[in-house]
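This is your field. Pick holes in the following sequence-structure pair:
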Amino acid sequence: MYVSAAMIWLGLLSVGVKAPLTTILLVNSASIIVSIIPVTIGGLGARETAAVLLFEKAGYAAAPILGGYIVIMIISNILALAVSVAATFSLKRENR
């Protein structure tokens, strides 16, 4: 949970939002719970929507919060793709 909160904190900082860590931890915990509810496939979008709404209730503008979460999603997917490609090439070399 702390790693996720640190990612959110850095993602929000990248778009200019300076939220306290306690707020981020609370919003992150609540949005994880919301993403578990089977409303969308894999909770995609539910977590981000919950986070935007909760940050709005805490007094932050919605657009930068959504931007920060999009930055986090893009970076996470790029890292996952890079690890997958590296693992695939590593396995192919071992099988030769």
